[in-house]
Prior knowledge:
This protein is of the alpha/beta class and about 600 residues long. The protein folds into three domains: about 10-205, P-loop containing nucleotide triphosphate hydrolases (Rossmann fold, 3-Layer(aba) Sandwich); about 215-375, P-loop containing nucleotide triphosphate hydrolases (Rossmann fold), CATH 3.40.50; about 455-575, Alpha-Beta Plaits. It is built from 22 helices and 20 strands. It is globular and about 90 Å long. This is ATP-dependent RNA helicase DeaD. Keywords: ATP-binding, Helicase, Hydrolase, Nucleotide-binding. GO terms for molecular function: ATP binding; hydrolase activity; nucleic acid binding; RNA helicase activity. It comes from Tenacibaculum lutimaris.
Amino acid sequence: MSTFLDLGLQEPINRALTDLGYEKPTVIQEKAIPQIISSTEDLKAFAQTGTGKTAAFSLPILELIDQTNVNTQAIILSPTRELAVQIGKNIEDFSKYLPNLKVATVYGGANIEEQIRKLKKGVQIVVGTPGRTVDLIKRRALKLGNVQWLVLDEADEMLNMGFKEELDQVLEATPDSKQTLLFSATFPREVEAIAKNYMTNPVEITSGQKNQGSDNVSHEYYLVTERTRYPALKRVADLNPDIYGIVFCRTRRETQEVANNLIKDGYNADALHGDLSQAQRDSVMEKFRQKNIQILVATDVAARGLDVNNLTHVINHKLPDQIENYNHRSGRTGRAGNKGISIALVTKKEQGKLRPIERIIKKEFIHTPVPSGKEICQNQLFHLIDKVHNTEVNTDQIEGFLPGIYEKLEDLTREELIQKFVSLEFNTFLSYYENAADLNNLSSKDNSRGRSSSENMTRFFINLGRKDRLNPAKLIGLINDQNIGDKIEIGAIDILDTFSFFEIDKNFEKETLDAFATNDPDFNGRSVNIEITKTDRGNGGGRKPRRSGGGNFSGRGRRSGDRNDKPTDSKKSFGRRRSENSTSRRSDNKPAAGFGRKRRRD
Ligand code: AMP
Protein backbone atom coordinates (compact mmCIF):
# COMPACT_ATOMS: atom_id res chain seq x y z
CA MET A 1 0.00 0.00 0.00
CA SER A 2 1.57 3.28 -1.08
CA THR A 3 1.74 6.51 0.89
CA PHE A 4 1.16 10.02 -0.46
CA LEU A 5 4.93 10.53 -0.49
CA ASP A 6 5.34 7.36 -2.59
CA LEU A 7 2.91 8.83 -5.12
CA GLY A 8 5.30 11.73 -5.68
CA LEU A 9 3.87 14.45 -3.46
CA GLN A 10 6.15 16.80 -1.57
CA GLU A 11 6.45 16.91 2.20
CA PRO A 12 4.42 20.12 2.83
CA ILE A 13 1.45 18.61 1.02
CA ASN A 14 1.85 15.33 2.85
CA ARG A 15 1.93 17.21 6.15
CA ALA A 16 -1.33 18.99 5.29
CA LEU A 17 -2.94 15.64 4.44
CA THR A 18 -1.80 14.20 7.75
CA ASP A 19 -3.40 17.19 9.48
CA LEU A 20 -6.64 16.36 7.67
CA GLY A 21 -6.46 12.75 8.83
CA TYR A 22 -5.81 11.31 5.38
CA GLU A 23 -3.68 8.31 6.24
CA LYS A 24 -3.41 6.60 2.90
CA PRO A 25 -4.49 7.37 -0.66
CA THR A 26 -7.82 6.11 -1.98
CA VAL A 27 -7.94 3.95 -5.13
CA ILE A 28 -8.61 6.88 -7.46
CA GLN A 29 -5.83 8.90 -5.80
CA GLU A 30 -3.37 6.03 -6.18
CA LYS A 31 -4.13 5.89 -9.87
CA ALA A 32 -4.57 9.56 -10.76
CA ILE A 33 -1.84 11.30 -8.74
CA PRO A 34 1.25 9.58 -10.25
CA GLN A 35 -0.36 9.61 -13.70
CA ILE A 36 -0.94 13.38 -13.67
CA ILE A 37 2.44 14.12 -12.09
CA SER A 38 4.34 12.07 -14.62
CA SER A 39 2.43 12.71 -17.82
CA THR A 40 0.84 15.59 -19.69
CA GLU A 41 -1.70 13.30 -21.36
CA ASP A 42 -5.37 14.07 -20.94
CA LEU A 43 -7.20 11.99 -18.40
CA LYS A 44 -10.67 10.55 -18.26
CA ALA A 45 -11.56 9.31 -14.80
CA PHE A 46 -14.61 7.32 -13.84
CA ALA A 47 -15.12 8.36 -10.27
CA GLN A 48 -18.10 8.38 -8.00
CA THR A 49 -18.62 11.13 -5.57
CA GLY A 50 -17.11 10.16 -2.24
CA THR A 51 -14.12 8.30 -3.67
CA GLY A 52 -11.64 11.07 -2.93
CA LYS A 53 -11.64 12.47 -6.45
CA THR A 54 -11.14 16.10 -5.35
CA ALA A 55 -7.75 15.24 -3.89
CA ALA A 56 -7.05 12.99 -6.88
CA PHE A 57 -6.96 15.96 -9.26
CA SER A 58 -5.99 18.76 -6.84
CA LEU A 59 -2.91 17.20 -5.26
CA PRO A 60 -0.91 16.59 -8.46
CA ILE A 61 -1.77 20.09 -9.66
CA LEU A 62 -0.50 21.51 -6.35
CA GLU A 63 2.63 19.41 -6.73
CA LEU A 64 3.40 20.75 -10.20
CA ILE A 65 2.11 24.31 -10.09
CA ASP A 66 4.56 27.19 -10.19
CA GLN A 67 3.92 29.08 -6.98
CA THR A 68 6.24 31.91 -7.94
CA ASN A 69 4.10 32.70 -10.97
CA VAL A 70 0.79 34.45 -10.21
CA ASN A 71 -0.85 33.62 -13.54
CA THR A 72 -3.85 31.35 -13.46
CA GLN A 73 -2.47 27.92 -14.24
CA ALA A 74 -5.38 25.70 -13.34
CA ILE A 75 -9.10 26.13 -13.87
CA ILE A 76 -11.48 23.68 -12.21
CA LEU A 77 -15.12 23.70 -13.30
CA SER A 78 -17.81 22.25 -11.10
CA PRO A 79 -21.59 22.10 -11.60
CA THR A 80 -22.75 23.86 -8.45
CA ARG A 81 -21.69 26.61 -6.18
CA GLU A 82 -21.65 24.23 -3.21
CA LEU A 83 -19.29 21.82 -4.89
CA ALA A 84 -17.07 24.67 -6.11
CA VAL A 85 -16.83 26.06 -2.58
CA GLN A 86 -16.04 22.61 -1.26
CA ILE A 87 -13.27 22.08 -3.81
CA GLY A 88 -11.85 25.56 -3.13
CA LYS A 89 -11.83 24.83 0.58
CA ASN A 90 -10.20 21.44 0.08
CA ILE A 91 -7.45 23.04 -2.00
CA GLU A 92 -6.86 25.64 0.69
CA ASP A 93 -6.55 22.83 3.22
CA PHE A 94 -4.22 20.80 1.02
CA SER A 95 -2.01 23.85 0.35
CA LYS A 96 -1.81 25.20 3.87
CA TYR A 97 1.98 24.67 3.95
CA LEU A 98 2.45 26.15 0.46
CA PRO A 99 2.60 29.84 1.45
CA ASN A 100 2.51 31.36 -2.03
CA LEU A 101 -0.31 29.28 -3.40
CA LYS A 102 -3.50 31.28 -4.03
CA VAL A 103 -6.87 29.89 -4.97
CA ALA A 104 -10.09 31.75 -5.86
CA THR A 105 -13.57 30.30 -6.00
CA VAL A 106 -16.00 32.03 -8.34
CA TYR A 107 -19.72 31.34 -8.64
CA GLY A 108 -22.96 33.08 -9.43
CA GLY A 109 -25.14 34.68 -6.82
CA ALA A 110 -22.15 36.30 -5.12
CA ASN A 111 -20.62 39.74 -5.58
CA ILE A 112 -18.75 39.65 -8.89
CA GLU A 113 -16.70 42.78 -8.08
CA GLU A 114 -15.15 41.07 -5.10
CA GLN A 115 -14.31 38.05 -7.21
CA ILE A 116 -12.73 40.32 -9.84
CA ARG A 117 -10.62 42.04 -7.17
CA LYS A 118 -9.38 38.69 -5.93
CA LEU A 119 -8.54 37.51 -9.44
CA LYS A 120 -6.66 40.74 -10.13
CA LYS A 121 -4.34 40.09 -7.20
CA GLY A 122 -3.23 36.94 -9.00
CA VAL A 123 -4.32 33.39 -8.25
CA GLN A 124 -2.78 30.21 -9.58
CA ILE A 125 -5.93 28.09 -9.24
CA VAL A 126 -9.49 29.14 -10.03
CA VAL A 127 -12.44 26.98 -9.09
CA GLY A 128 -15.67 28.08 -10.72
CA THR A 129 -19.16 27.28 -11.83
CA PRO A 130 -19.49 27.39 -15.63
CA GLY A 131 -21.81 30.44 -15.87
CA ARG A 132 -19.77 32.74 -13.64
CA THR A 133 -16.50 31.57 -15.16
CA VAL A 134 -17.73 32.54 -18.64
CA ASP A 135 -18.94 35.86 -17.28
CA LEU A 136 -15.51 36.62 -15.83
CA ILE A 137 -13.77 35.58 -19.04
CA LYS A 138 -16.01 37.97 -21.01
CA ARG A 139 -15.23 40.78 -18.60
CA ARG A 140 -11.54 40.00 -19.12
CA ALA A 141 -11.13 39.54 -15.38
CA LEU A 142 -10.25 35.90 -15.81
CA LYS A 143 -7.47 35.12 -18.26
CA LEU A 144 -6.99 31.50 -19.12
CA GLY A 145 -4.21 31.90 -21.70
CA ASN A 146 -1.62 30.36 -19.36
CA VAL A 147 -3.72 27.51 -18.14
CA GLN A 148 -1.93 24.18 -17.94
CA TRP A 149 -4.68 22.14 -16.34
CA LEU A 150 -8.40 22.21 -16.99
CA VAL A 151 -10.47 20.03 -14.68
CA LEU A 152 -14.07 19.19 -15.50
CA ASP A 153 -15.48 17.82 -12.29
CA GLU A 154 -18.80 15.96 -12.37
CA ALA A 155 -18.91 16.56 -16.11
CA ASP A 156 -22.11 14.54 -16.47
CA GLU A 157 -23.88 16.78 -14.01
CA MET A 158 -22.65 19.96 -15.72
CA LEU A 159 -24.15 18.72 -18.95
CA ASN A 160 -27.32 17.59 -17.18
CA MET A 161 -27.67 21.09 -15.90
CA GLY A 162 -27.45 22.54 -19.36
CA PHE A 163 -23.94 24.00 -19.21
CA LYS A 164 -22.83 22.62 -22.58
CA GLU A 165 -22.46 26.07 -24.15
CA GLU A 166 -20.53 27.46 -21.17
CA LEU A 167 -18.21 24.45 -21.17
CA ASP A 168 -17.51 25.03 -24.84
CA GLN A 169 -16.75 28.69 -24.16
CA VAL A 170 -14.34 27.95 -21.31
CA LEU A 171 -12.64 25.22 -23.30
CA GLU A 172 -12.18 27.64 -26.20
CA ALA A 173 -10.52 30.19 -23.88
CA THR A 174 -7.80 27.78 -22.81
CA PRO A 175 -4.65 26.94 -24.78
CA ASP A 176 -4.41 23.70 -26.76
CA SER A 177 -1.34 22.73 -24.80
CA LYS A 178 -3.25 22.30 -21.54
CA GLN A 179 -3.92 18.95 -19.92
CA THR A 180 -7.63 18.21 -19.57
CA LEU A 181 -8.76 16.12 -16.62
CA LEU A 182 -12.33 14.97 -16.85
CA PHE A 183 -14.00 13.39 -13.81
CA SER A 184 -17.43 11.92 -14.08
CA ALA A 185 -19.46 9.28 -12.29
CA THR A 186 -21.26 8.35 -15.47
CA PHE A 187 -20.34 8.58 -19.12
CA PRO A 188 -23.46 9.19 -21.15
CA ARG A 189 -23.18 10.16 -24.82
CA GLU A 190 -22.85 13.87 -24.10
CA VAL A 191 -19.84 13.39 -21.82
CA GLU A 192 -18.22 11.07 -24.32
CA ALA A 193 -18.75 13.78 -26.93
CA ILE A 194 -16.93 16.35 -24.78
CA ALA A 195 -14.11 13.85 -24.25
CA LYS A 196 -13.94 13.19 -27.97
CA ASN A 197 -14.03 16.83 -29.07
CA TYR A 198 -11.75 18.34 -26.49
CA MET A 199 -9.36 15.65 -25.40
CA THR A 200 -6.55 13.94 -27.23
CA ASN A 201 -6.18 10.20 -26.65
CA PRO A 202 -7.04 10.45 -23.00
CA VAL A 203 -5.75 7.92 -20.50
CA GLU A 204 -8.66 6.25 -18.74
CA ILE A 205 -8.68 5.43 -15.09
CA THR A 206 -11.43 4.23 -12.84
CA SER A 207 -11.98 4.01 -9.12
CA GLY A 208 -13.80 0.73 -9.61
CA GLN A 209 -15.89 -0.56 -12.43
CA LYS A 210 -17.33 2.09 -14.68
CA ASN A 211 -20.53 3.48 -13.25
CA GLN A 212 -20.56 0.92 -10.52
CA GLY A 213 -21.82 2.00 -7.15
CA SER A 214 -19.80 1.87 -3.98
CA ASP A 215 -19.25 -1.56 -2.44
CA ASN A 216 -20.10 -0.14 0.92
CA VAL A 217 -23.69 0.62 0.00
CA SER A 218 -26.49 -1.91 0.22
CA HIS A 219 -29.53 -1.22 -1.91
CA GLU A 220 -33.01 -1.98 -0.66
CA TYR A 221 -36.45 -1.28 -1.97
CA TYR A 222 -39.75 -0.98 -0.15
CA LEU A 223 -42.92 -1.63 -2.08
CA VAL A 224 -45.38 1.17 -1.35
CA THR A 225 -48.45 2.79 -2.82
CA GLU A 226 -48.83 6.51 -3.36
CA ARG A 227 -50.63 6.68 -0.08
CA THR A 228 -48.18 4.65 1.97
CA ARG A 229 -45.07 6.29 0.52
CA TYR A 230 -44.87 8.92 3.24
CA PRO A 231 -45.85 6.64 6.15
CA ALA A 232 -43.20 4.18 4.92
CA LEU A 233 -40.63 6.97 4.93
CA LYS A 234 -41.55 7.79 8.52
CA ARG A 235 -41.15 4.17 9.47
CA VAL A 236 -37.64 4.10 8.08
CA ALA A 237 -36.85 7.10 10.27
CA ASP A 238 -38.57 5.57 13.28
CA LEU A 239 -36.80 2.27 12.84
CA ASN A 240 -33.44 4.04 12.90
CA PRO A 241 -33.31 6.43 15.84
CA ASP A 242 -29.82 7.58 14.84
CA ILE A 243 -30.65 8.07 11.20
CA TYR A 244 -28.55 10.72 9.48
CA GLY A 245 -29.63 10.79 5.91
CA ILE A 246 -30.87 12.47 2.77
CA VAL A 247 -34.34 11.92 1.35
CA PHE A 248 -34.14 12.58 -2.39
CA CYS A 249 -37.11 13.98 -4.25
CA ARG A 250 -37.53 14.79 -7.92
CA THR A 251 -39.00 18.25 -7.74
CA ARG A 252 -38.68 21.28 -5.52
CA ARG A 253 -42.33 21.06 -4.66
CA GLU A 254 -42.16 17.42 -3.66
CA THR A 255 -39.07 18.24 -1.60
CA GLN A 256 -40.76 21.05 0.28
CA GLU A 257 -43.91 19.01 0.87
CA VAL A 258 -42.08 16.01 2.28
CA ALA A 259 -39.93 18.24 4.47
CA ASN A 260 -42.96 20.16 5.72
CA ASN A 261 -44.72 16.93 6.62
CA LEU A 262 -41.70 15.57 8.43
CA ILE A 263 -41.24 18.78 10.36
CA LYS A 264 -44.92 18.91 11.24
CA ASP A 265 -44.74 15.31 12.40
CA GLY A 266 -41.92 16.15 14.74
CA TYR A 267 -38.90 14.92 12.85
CA ASN A 268 -35.62 16.68 12.84
CA ALA A 269 -35.75 17.52 9.14
CA ASP A 270 -35.40 20.36 6.66
CA ALA A 271 -35.57 21.02 2.94
CA LEU A 272 -32.80 21.88 0.48
CA HIS A 273 -33.77 22.94 -3.01
CA GLY A 274 -33.29 25.63 -5.59
CA ASP A 275 -36.25 27.77 -4.52
CA LEU A 276 -34.40 28.67 -1.34
CA SER A 277 -32.11 31.67 -1.31
CA GLN A 278 -28.42 30.99 -1.22
CA ALA A 279 -28.28 32.12 2.41
CA GLN A 280 -31.06 29.69 3.32
CA ARG A 281 -29.34 26.86 1.49
CA ASP A 282 -26.05 27.60 3.23
CA SER A 283 -27.77 27.66 6.57
CA VAL A 284 -29.57 24.34 6.00
CA MET A 285 -26.39 22.68 4.78
CA GLU A 286 -24.42 23.93 7.74
CA LYS A 287 -27.06 22.66 10.16
CA PHE A 288 -27.03 19.30 8.42
CA ARG A 289 -23.24 19.12 8.55
CA GLN A 290 -23.37 19.94 12.24
CA LYS A 291 -26.01 17.22 12.62
CA ASN A 292 -28.48 19.71 13.96
CA ILE A 293 -30.68 18.40 11.17
CA GLN A 294 -31.00 14.63 11.01
CA ILE A 295 -32.98 14.20 7.80
CA LEU A 296 -32.29 16.43 4.83
CA VAL A 297 -34.94 16.38 2.12
CA ALA A 298 -33.29 17.49 -1.11
CA THR A 299 -33.42 17.66 -4.86
CA ASP A 300 -30.59 16.04 -6.78
CA VAL A 301 -29.07 19.31 -7.84
CA ALA A 302 -29.20 21.00 -4.45
CA ALA A 303 -27.54 18.06 -2.70
CA ARG A 304 -24.56 18.22 -5.01
CA GLY A 305 -21.37 19.16 -3.29
CA LEU A 306 -22.65 18.42 0.15
CA ASP A 307 -19.55 16.94 1.64
CA VAL A 308 -20.83 14.72 4.41
CA ASN A 309 -19.20 11.37 4.92
CA ASN A 310 -21.07 9.52 7.57
CA LEU A 311 -24.61 9.36 6.24
CA THR A 312 -26.40 6.26 7.42
CA HIS A 313 -29.16 6.35 4.80
CA VAL A 314 -30.06 7.67 1.42
CA ILE A 315 -33.78 7.40 0.76
CA ASN A 316 -35.23 7.73 -2.70
CA HIS A 317 -38.67 9.12 -1.94
CA LYS A 318 -39.14 8.78 -5.66
CA LEU A 319 -36.59 7.32 -8.05
CA PRO A 320 -34.82 9.88 -10.23
CA ASP A 321 -35.97 10.43 -13.80
CA GLN A 322 -32.48 9.79 -15.09
CA ILE A 323 -31.27 6.49 -13.82
CA GLU A 324 -27.65 7.65 -13.64
CA ASN A 325 -28.71 9.98 -10.89
CA TYR A 326 -29.45 7.00 -8.67
CA ASN A 327 -25.71 6.45 -8.51
CA HIS A 328 -25.11 10.03 -7.47
CA ARG A 329 -27.75 9.73 -4.80
CA SER A 330 -26.64 6.45 -3.32
CA GLY A 331 -23.03 7.62 -3.52
CA ARG A 332 -23.81 10.11 -0.76
CA THR A 333 -23.68 7.23 1.69
CA GLY A 334 -21.05 4.50 2.13
CA ARG A 335 -18.30 7.10 1.85
CA ALA A 336 -14.78 7.17 3.25
CA GLY A 337 -14.98 3.52 4.25
CA ASN A 338 -18.33 3.74 6.06
CA LYS A 339 -21.25 1.44 5.35
CA GLY A 340 -24.51 2.89 4.05
CA ILE A 341 -28.00 1.92 2.99
CA SER A 342 -29.79 3.29 -0.03
CA ILE A 343 -33.55 2.73 0.09
CA ALA A 344 -35.93 3.18 -2.82
CA LEU A 345 -39.62 3.65 -2.10
CA VAL A 346 -41.32 2.30 -5.20
CA THR A 347 -44.85 1.52 -6.26
CA LYS A 348 -45.63 -1.59 -8.26
CA LYS A 349 -45.69 0.60 -11.33
CA GLU A 350 -42.25 2.02 -10.59
CA GLN A 351 -40.74 -1.39 -9.85
CA GLY A 352 -39.69 -1.74 -13.48
CA LYS A 353 -37.21 1.12 -12.99
CA LEU A 354 -35.11 -0.97 -10.63
CA ARG A 355 -33.68 -3.38 -13.22
CA PRO A 356 -31.89 -0.75 -15.33
CA ILE A 357 -30.43 0.72 -12.15
CA GLU A 358 -29.27 -2.72 -11.03
CA ARG A 359 -27.45 -3.09 -14.32
CA ILE A 360 -25.59 0.15 -13.66
CA ILE A 361 -24.76 -0.43 -10.01
CA LYS A 362 -24.07 -4.12 -10.66
CA LYS A 363 -25.95 -5.03 -7.54
CA GLU A 364 -29.41 -6.27 -6.82
CA PHE A 365 -31.96 -4.37 -4.81
CA ILE A 366 -33.11 -6.35 -1.82
CA HIS A 367 -36.85 -6.30 -1.31
CA THR A 368 -37.29 -5.31 2.31
CA PRO A 369 -40.69 -5.25 4.00
CA VAL A 370 -41.79 -1.90 5.37
CA PRO A 371 -41.01 -2.19 9.10
CA SER A 372 -43.90 -3.09 11.35
CA GLY A 373 -44.89 -1.08 14.37
CA LYS A 374 -43.60 -3.86 16.59
CA GLU A 375 -40.16 -3.85 15.00
CA ILE A 376 -39.97 -0.12 15.36
CA CYS A 377 -40.95 -0.18 19.02
CA GLN A 378 -38.41 -2.89 19.70
CA ASN A 379 -35.63 -1.00 17.96
CA GLN A 380 -36.42 2.22 19.72
CA LEU A 381 -36.65 0.45 23.06
CA PHE A 382 -33.27 -1.23 22.70
CA HIS A 383 -31.81 2.02 21.51
CA LEU A 384 -32.99 3.69 24.67
CA ILE A 385 -31.69 0.86 26.85
CA ASP A 386 -28.30 1.16 25.14
CA LYS A 387 -28.34 4.87 25.79
CA VAL A 388 -29.09 4.26 29.45
CA HIS A 389 -26.20 1.81 29.60
CA ASN A 390 -23.83 4.26 27.99
CA THR A 391 -24.85 7.30 30.02
CA GLU A 392 -22.06 8.59 32.16
CA VAL A 393 -23.13 9.34 35.68
CA ASN A 394 -21.77 12.48 37.23
CA THR A 395 -22.07 11.55 40.88
CA ASP A 396 -20.90 14.94 42.15
CA GLN A 397 -23.72 16.74 40.39
CA ILE A 398 -26.56 14.50 41.47
CA GLU A 399 -25.29 13.36 44.87
CA GLY A 400 -27.28 15.92 46.79
CA PHE A 401 -30.56 14.80 45.25
CA LEU A 402 -30.05 11.07 45.51
CA PRO A 403 -31.19 10.42 49.09
CA GLY A 404 -34.53 12.13 48.38
CA ILE A 405 -34.94 10.25 45.11
CA TYR A 406 -34.11 6.88 46.73
CA GLU A 407 -36.64 7.60 49.43
CA LYS A 408 -39.37 8.44 46.92
CA LEU A 409 -38.73 5.28 44.95
CA GLU A 410 -38.12 2.90 47.83
CA ASP A 411 -41.54 1.25 47.58
CA LEU A 412 -40.79 0.08 44.02
CA THR A 413 -38.98 -3.15 43.21
CA ARG A 414 -36.27 -3.19 40.57
CA GLU A 415 -38.70 -4.77 38.07
CA GLU A 416 -41.41 -2.20 38.79
CA LEU A 417 -38.93 0.61 38.40
CA ILE A 418 -37.79 -0.71 35.02
CA GLN A 419 -41.38 -1.19 33.87
CA LYS A 420 -42.35 2.32 34.86
CA PHE A 421 -39.29 3.82 33.26
CA VAL A 422 -39.95 1.99 30.00
CA SER A 423 -43.64 2.90 30.05
CA LEU A 424 -42.88 6.53 30.74
CA GLU A 425 -40.68 6.68 27.71
CA PHE A 426 -42.68 4.37 25.49
CA ASN A 427 -46.38 4.74 26.08
CA THR A 428 -46.66 7.38 23.40
CA PHE A 429 -44.79 5.40 20.83
CA LEU A 430 -46.42 2.12 21.69
CA SER A 431 -49.87 3.60 21.40
CA TYR A 432 -48.94 5.33 18.17
CA TYR A 433 -47.90 2.06 16.62
CA GLU A 434 -50.30 -0.15 18.56
CA ASN A 435 -52.76 -0.48 15.73
CA ALA A 436 -50.46 0.56 12.94
CA ALA A 437 -51.43 -0.82 9.58
CA ASP A 438 -49.25 -3.36 7.84
CA LEU A 439 -47.93 -1.18 5.06
CA ASN A 440 -46.85 -4.24 3.13
CA ASN A 441 -50.43 -5.16 2.46
CA LEU A 442 -50.90 -3.55 -0.91
CA SER A 443 -54.02 -5.48 -1.77
CA SER A 444 -56.32 -2.84 -0.33
CA LYS A 445 -57.44 -0.28 -2.86
CA ASP A 446 -54.84 1.98 -1.56
CA ASN A 447 -54.52 4.29 -4.49
CA SER A 448 -58.16 4.89 -4.85
CA ARG A 449 -60.92 5.98 -2.64
CA GLY A 450 -61.15 2.42 -1.39
CA ARG A 451 -61.20 0.84 1.97
CA SER A 452 -57.73 1.62 3.05
CA SER A 453 -56.96 3.80 5.92
CA SER A 454 -53.68 5.54 6.37
CA GLU A 455 -51.72 7.16 9.09
CA ASN A 456 -52.46 10.53 7.55
CA MET A 457 -56.22 10.22 7.68
CA THR A 458 -58.86 10.64 10.36
CA ARG A 459 -61.89 8.39 10.21
CA PHE A 460 -65.28 9.98 10.76
CA PHE A 461 -68.65 8.45 11.56
CA ILE A 462 -71.68 10.00 9.84
CA ASN A 463 -75.30 9.26 10.78
CA LEU A 464 -76.40 8.65 7.19
CA GLY A 465 -76.42 5.42 5.24
CA ARG A 466 -77.86 3.59 2.26
CA LYS A 467 -81.37 3.94 3.70
CA ASP A 468 -80.92 7.71 3.40
CA ARG A 469 -79.94 7.20 -0.26
CA LEU A 470 -76.35 8.11 0.54
CA ASN A 471 -73.69 6.87 -1.85
CA PRO A 472 -69.98 7.77 -2.12
CA ALA A 473 -70.57 10.49 -4.73
CA LYS A 474 -73.26 12.14 -2.62
CA LEU A 475 -71.14 11.90 0.49
CA ILE A 476 -68.24 13.58 -1.31
CA GLY A 477 -70.66 16.26 -2.52
CA LEU A 478 -71.90 16.78 1.03
CA ILE A 479 -68.36 17.11 2.34
CA ASN A 480 -67.38 19.50 -0.44
CA ASP A 481 -70.45 21.63 0.26
CA GLN A 482 -69.08 22.39 3.71
CA ASN A 483 -66.17 24.37 2.20
CA ILE A 484 -63.63 22.79 4.49
CA GLY A 485 -60.63 23.59 2.32
CA ASP A 486 -59.55 23.61 -1.31
CA LYS A 487 -57.05 20.84 -0.99
CA ILE A 488 -58.91 18.59 1.38
CA GLU A 489 -58.23 14.94 0.72
CA ILE A 490 -61.02 12.43 1.24
CA GLY A 491 -59.89 8.85 1.87
CA ALA A 492 -61.78 5.61 2.29
CA ILE A 493 -65.56 5.69 2.33
CA ASP A 494 -67.72 2.91 3.77
CA ILE A 495 -71.46 3.27 3.21
CA LEU A 496 -73.49 1.02 5.53
CA ASP A 497 -77.26 0.72 5.95
CA THR A 498 -77.99 3.40 8.51
CA PHE A 499 -74.63 5.05 8.99
CA SER A 500 -71.31 5.39 7.19
CA PHE A 501 -67.64 6.19 7.62
CA PHE A 502 -65.32 8.43 5.70
CA GLU A 503 -61.73 9.53 6.04
CA ILE A 504 -60.34 13.05 5.85
CA ASP A 505 -56.77 14.26 5.77
CA LYS A 506 -55.92 14.44 9.45
CA ASN A 507 -54.80 18.04 9.07
CA PHE A 508 -58.39 19.02 8.34
CA GLU A 509 -59.88 17.13 11.25
CA LYS A 510 -60.82 20.18 13.29
CA GLU A 511 -61.95 22.16 10.27
CA THR A 512 -64.21 19.28 9.26
CA LEU A 513 -65.84 19.06 12.69
CA ASP A 514 -66.18 22.86 12.87
CA ALA A 515 -67.65 23.14 9.37
CA PHE A 516 -70.33 20.51 9.96
CA ALA A 517 -71.15 22.03 13.37
CA THR A 518 -71.41 25.58 11.97
CA ASN A 519 -73.25 24.77 8.73
CA ASP A 520 -75.50 22.23 10.38
CA PRO A 521 -76.39 20.69 7.00
CA ASP A 522 -79.29 18.38 6.35
CA PHE A 523 -79.46 15.55 3.85
CA ASN A 524 -82.82 14.61 2.35
CA GLY A 525 -84.43 16.26 5.33
CA ARG A 526 -82.26 14.51 7.92
CA SER A 527 -80.01 16.49 10.21
CA VAL A 528 -76.38 15.44 9.73
CA ASN A 529 -74.05 14.48 12.56
CA ILE A 530 -70.42 13.50 12.28
CA GLU A 531 -67.96 12.27 14.90
CA ILE A 532 -64.38 11.13 14.90
CA THR A 533 -64.33 7.36 15.31
CA LYS A 534 -62.24 6.19 18.20
CA THR A 535 -62.30 2.50 17.28
CA ASP A 536 -61.75 0.73 14.03
CA ARG A 537 -64.63 -0.45 11.99
CA GLY A 538 -64.73 -4.17 12.50
CA ASN A 539 -64.91 -5.06 8.86
CA GLY A 540 -61.36 -5.98 8.17
CA GLY A 541 -60.34 -2.70 6.59
CA GLY A 542 -57.14 -0.92 7.40
CA ARG A 543 -56.68 0.60 10.76
CA LYS A 544 -55.77 4.08 11.69
CA PRO A 545 -53.22 3.99 14.44
CA ARG A 546 -54.45 5.84 17.45
CA ARG A 547 -52.11 8.52 18.53
CA SER A 548 -51.82 9.83 21.98
CA GLY A 549 -48.60 11.71 21.47
CA GLY A 550 -47.21 14.53 23.45
CA GLY A 551 -44.12 13.00 24.91
CA ASN A 552 -41.04 13.23 22.82
CA PHE A 553 -39.42 10.16 21.56
CA SER A 554 -35.96 9.62 20.36
CA GLY A 555 -35.92 10.77 16.77
CA ARG A 556 -39.12 12.74 16.96
CA GLY A 557 -40.72 15.40 18.95
CA ARG A 558 -44.21 16.46 19.77
CA ARG A 559 -46.54 15.95 16.88
CA SER A 560 -47.99 19.36 16.53
CA GLY A 561 -49.90 18.21 13.47
CA ASP A 562 -51.87 15.69 15.44
CA ARG A 563 -54.67 17.78 16.66
CA ASN A 564 -56.42 14.89 18.35
CA ASP A 565 -53.46 14.16 20.53
CA LYS A 566 -54.36 14.66 24.09
CA PRO A 567 -51.34 13.85 26.14
CA THR A 568 -51.80 12.73 29.68
CA ASP A 569 -50.34 15.02 32.27
CA SER A 570 -47.28 12.97 32.83
CA LYS A 571 -46.53 12.79 29.13
CA LYS A 572 -47.14 16.43 28.70
CA SER A 573 -44.70 17.47 31.35
CA PHE A 574 -42.17 15.00 30.04
CA GLY A 575 -42.46 16.43 26.55
CA ARG A 576 -42.20 19.97 27.79
CA ARG A 577 -39.11 19.26 29.81
CA ARG A 578 -37.41 17.92 26.74
CA SER A 579 -38.34 20.71 24.43
CA GLU A 580 -37.14 23.31 26.93
CA ASN A 581 -33.96 21.41 27.12
CA SER A 582 -33.47 21.39 23.37
CA THR A 583 -34.40 25.05 23.00
CA SER A 584 -31.86 26.15 25.53
CA ARG A 585 -29.23 24.05 23.86
CA ARG A 586 -30.03 25.60 20.57
CA SER A 587 -29.49 29.08 21.85
CA ASP A 588 -25.83 28.43 22.33
CA ASN A 589 -25.81 26.81 18.95
CA LYS A 590 -24.47 23.45 19.94
CA PRO A 591 -25.78 20.17 18.64
CA ALA A 592 -28.26 18.56 21.00
CA ALA A 593 -26.69 15.87 23.09
CA GLY A 594 -29.61 13.61 22.28
CA PHE A 595 -29.01 13.59 18.57
CA GLY A 596 -32.41 12.24 17.66
CA ARG A 597 -34.24 14.98 19.43
CA LYS A 598 -36.36 17.34 17.48
CA ARG A 599 -35.21 20.89 17.78
CA ARG A 600 -37.19 23.90 16.96
CA ARG A 601 -36.44 25.65 13.74
CA ASP A 602 -35.50 29.27 13.39
P1 AMP B 1 -14.55 13.49 -2.65
O1 AMP B 1 -14.81 12.24 -3.45
O2 AMP B 1 -13.41 14.26 -3.15
O3 AMP B 1 -15.79 14.29 -2.48
O4 AMP B 1 -14.10 13.01 -1.18
C1 AMP B 1 -14.96 12.37 -0.29
C2 AMP B 1 -14.53 12.52 1.14
O5 AMP B 1 -13.43 11.68 1.43
C3 AMP B 1 -14.11 13.93 1.52
O6 AMP B 1 -14.68 14.24 2.77
C4 AMP B 1 -12.62 13.86 1.66
O7 AMP B 1 -12.16 14.78 2.63
C5 AMP B 1 -12.40 12.43 2.10
N1 AMP B 1 -11.12 11.88 1.61
C6 AMP B 1 -10.59 12.03 0.38
N2 AMP B 1 -9.42 11.37 0.29
C7 AMP B 1 -9.21 10.79 1.48
C8 AMP B 1 -8.16 9.95 2.01
N3 AMP B 1 -7.12 9.59 1.29
N4 AMP B 1 -8.28 9.53 3.28
C9 AMP B 1 -9.34 9.90 4.02
N5 AMP B 1 -10.36 10.68 3.60
C10 AMP B 1 -10.30 11.11 2.33
